[in-house]
Amino acid sequence: MSMTAGGGSERQVMSERRRVRPTARDRHVPRRVVSCLVATVLGTAGVVAGGGGPAAATAAQPGTATGRTASWTDWSVGSQLPPPTGGLDAVSCPTTTDCVAVGANANGGGSILTTTDGGATWSDRVAPTVTFDINGVQFSSRGYVLDGVSCSSTQACVAVGTVSTRVSFFDVVDVSAAILTSTDGGVTWTSQSVPNGVTQLAAVSCPSTTSCVAVGSAILTSTDGGVTWTSRSVPSGVTQLAGVACPSTTSCVAVGNGILTSTDGGTTWTSR
Q1: N or C, fewer C-beta in 10 Å, the chain?
Q2: Residue 38: which residues within 8 A CB-CB, separation 6 or more?
Q3: Integer Rg of the chain from CA
Q4: Tell me, what's the pLDDT at 5?
């Protein structure tokens, strides 16, 4: 039996998402993510995904930045993303042509989109099915809400967020952290086990095809491309992390209600 959230408007669905678990917007983190391909303030090519609706934009030329403001040029907005895309939260582009964007769809599940032409056109991909048992009855759904994605190559990608199991639109059985991996550039995905006690993941960074760091209600590291994960100690006073960036397999910075740095690939962290 397939149980999916249907029949409600996009506004109702997004409202339900906020009731189920804290989203990036609820944590006062802007749900607008940009991926650029060179190590400058603004790259020579990029894709931006916004949480305000089903839209993506691409730029073929660099923008200019002065102080705290940025001016972008030559953007092309693509508002016709595959339905039922409800909002995109993150995007990763390992090359100038290949990108993966993730978020939520208008039916309450996760959205996974891929492009091979630099963001001009997008294809909808299917998240794995979640199977759960209620009083001996088997149910299944695709209740992923994905907040972060990192593609270390054109083939290897890791996405993180939450997954909810429910028997009706408002009856949530369980909400837990979710990790998905892809070995074909985001076309197909596999759900991976998450360490016990991790309720939500907001961001992930994979500086290589084997090394990844994910953050949210916990800090997790992987040395096999996201298949298995290890929980790491979080410094005192830091309860929620919303973003992480690892420019190398040893150096990482995580942010949330604090700023943390690591020099050993996420194994240990220091508050700043």
Answers
A1: N
A2: 44
A3: 18
A4: 37
pLDDT tens sequence across 125-134: 988 876 666 6
CA distance 150 to 94: 9
Q: For the chain, how many residues are written? A: 272
Sheet holding 212-216, edge to edge: 201-205, 212-216, 219-222, 230-232
Mean pLDDT (the chain, rounded): 75
Contact 79/55 with Cβ under 8 angstroms?
yes
Measured distance CA(252)–CA(242) in Å, rounded:
14
Confidence category of residue 108, pLDDT binned at 50, 70, 90: low
Q: Which residue has the tokens 């596999």?
A: 190
What beta strand segments (E) does 37-171 contain? Answer: 46-50, 56-59, 64-66, 69-71, 75-78, 85-92, 99-105, 110-115, 123-125, 130-134, 137-141, 144-151, 157-166
Distance (Å, rounded) from C-alpha 249 to C-alpha 217? 22
Written as six digits, the tokens of 174 are 């369980």
SS3 15: helix
- The answer to whether residues 141 and 166 touch, using CB atoms and an 8 Å cutoff, is yes
Residues with Cβ within 8 Å of residue 80, at least 6 apart in sequence: none
Query: What span, in angstroms and rounded, lies between the C-alpha atoms of 107 and 153?
Result: 30
